[in-house]
């Protein structure tokens, strides 16, 4: 990894904005942070964000992403604040800009925001000096999820091929389920195609957005066909809360045609791994025994998420030219 490579963005809003080199810089920065989290003895911390303030601002429910960002910030020794919609003045009608201006008056450095409106993170990033990380904006993008997924796929591929330099070029990834409402699918398609992987999306017609192939992926409504040559089977959560109408006949019908279960997986190569961003609707989009089975790397995704978010925060604060380089605390 090029330790001195510059990071030139104030914010991380979407994968669509990033070049392959920028994505690779993040992925190559993450292993040193994974190593910190894996320390068996000693302190699982590096003082790279000491004295910085990281605010987690979440308007939608979240377990993994919120705790992952919080832990990543803490492992970098930042101060952290968490604000959720329910407890904040947005319920009294305060605008996002006003709330952020007040947070900034307390000298925030990084603001991690999850919001139900697509574009919320970008809108704030353009008007405010805080460094904004998009933790999911509506059905638009969820960049750190795609980055941790790419990291996990690269790790697994390197292990499988015994090649610690392998990238994602030529990797075949099948993304299955509710593509239409999924910011994870969009960020993953951008990320994987930029890294040279081949992406196939598969789901019922009503859950495949029109024109999705223009993002550079193959499209099919046949699960078997999608799985046939897949190195990675990426299952999406059915976003029932975002669906405004009934988009498939019945759960039973969906399960019969699209659930990733033992029978469907028989079509996939033996080495194919199973991924899911969580939270899982067990026995809906994926069979429980598959989600928990030996081919599932779902919990590795979670572990890798902390390292990748540490890498992103480190690059934003310490490699973006405006930021002052972090100096380790004096031992005097
Ligand atoms: C995803 C999200 O919120 O977009 N979850 C996550 O961040 N791990 C996926 C989902 O909710 O289905």
How is this structure best described in words?
The strands form 2 sheets. Strands 7-6-5-8-9 form a 5-stranded parallel β-sheet. The protein has 332 residues and is an alpha/beta fold. It has helices at residues 20-37, 64-75, 96-104, 120-127, 143-161, 183-194, 223-227, 251-258, 262-265, 288-291, 298-319, and strands at residues 53-58, 79-84, 110-115, 131-137, 172-176, 198-202, 218-220, 232-235, 273-275. Strand 3, helix 4 and strand 4 form a beta-alpha-beta unit. It has 2 domains: 20-141 and 302-319, Aspartate/ornithine carbamoyltransferase (Rossmann fold), CATH 3.40.50.1370; 143-298, Aspartate/ornithine carbamoyltransferase (Rossmann fold, 3-Layer(aba) Sandwich). Helices cover 36% and strands 14% of the residues. The longest helix is centred in the last third of the chain and has 22 residues, at 298-319. N-carbamoyl-L-aspartate (NCD) binds next to helix 2 and helix 6.
The CATH architecture classification of the largest domain is 3-Layer(aba) Sandwich
CATH fold-level topology of the largest domain: Rossmann fold
Class of the largest domain in CATH? Alpha Beta
Low-confidence stretches: none
Ligands and ions found: N-carbamoyl-L-aspartate
Whole-number average pLDDT?
93
Largest sheet: 5 strands, parallel
Structural class of the helices, strands and pairings? alpha/beta
CATH superfamily grouping of the largest domain: Aspartate/ornithine carbamoyltransferase
Q: In whole angstroms, how far apart are the ends?
A: 32 Å
Alpha carbon gyration radius: 20 Å
Helices and strands, in order, run as: HEHEHEHEHEHEEHEHHEHH
Total number of domains: 2
Strand content range: 5-15%
Helix content: 25-40%
Order of the strands making up the biggest sheet: 7-6-5-8-9
Number of helices, counting only DSSP H or I runs of 4 residues or more: 11
Shape assignment: globular
Extended strand count: 9
């Amino acid at each position: 990894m090029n330790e001195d490579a510059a990071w030139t963005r104030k914010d991380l809003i979407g994968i669509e904005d990033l070049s392959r080199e920028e994505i690779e810089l993040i992925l190559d920065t993450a292993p040193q942070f994974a190593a910190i989290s894996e320390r068996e003895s000693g302190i699982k911390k590096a003082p790279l964000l000491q004295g910085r303030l990281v605010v987690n601002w979440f308007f939608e429910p979240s377990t993994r992403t919120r705790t992952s960002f919080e832990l990543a910030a803490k492992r970098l020794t930042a101060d952290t604040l968490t604000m959720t919609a329910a407890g904040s003045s947005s319920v009294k009608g305060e605008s996002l800009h006003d709330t952020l201006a007040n947070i900034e008056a307390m000298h925030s450095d990084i603001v991690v925001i999850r919001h139900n409106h697509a574009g919320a993170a970008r809108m704030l990033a353009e008007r405010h000096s805080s460094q904004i990380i998009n933790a999911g904006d509506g059905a638009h993008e969820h960049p750190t999820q795609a980055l941790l997924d790419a990291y996990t796929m690269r790790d697994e591929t390197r292990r499988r091929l015994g090649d610690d330099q392998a990238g994602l070029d030529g990797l075949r990834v099948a993304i299955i389920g509710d593509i239409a409402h999924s910011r994870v699918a969009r960020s993953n398609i951008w990320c994987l195609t930029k890294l040279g992987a081949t992406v196939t999306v598969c789901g019922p017609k009503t859950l495949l957005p029109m024109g999705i192939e223009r993002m550079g992926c193959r499209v099919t409504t046949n699960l078997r066909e999608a799985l046939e040559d897949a190195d990675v089977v990426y299952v999406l959560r059915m976003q029932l809360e975002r669906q405004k109408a009934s988009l498939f006949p019945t759960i039973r019908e969906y399960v019969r045609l699209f659930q990733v279960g033992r029978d469907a997986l028989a079509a996939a190569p033996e080495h194919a791994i199973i991924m899911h961003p969580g939270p899982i609707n067990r026995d809906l989009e994926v069979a429980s025994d598959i989600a928990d089975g030996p081919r599932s790397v779902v919990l590795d995704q979670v572990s890798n998420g902390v390292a990748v978010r540490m890498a992103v925060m480190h690059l934003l604060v310490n490699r973006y030219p405006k930021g002052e380089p972090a100096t380790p605390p004096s031992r005097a």
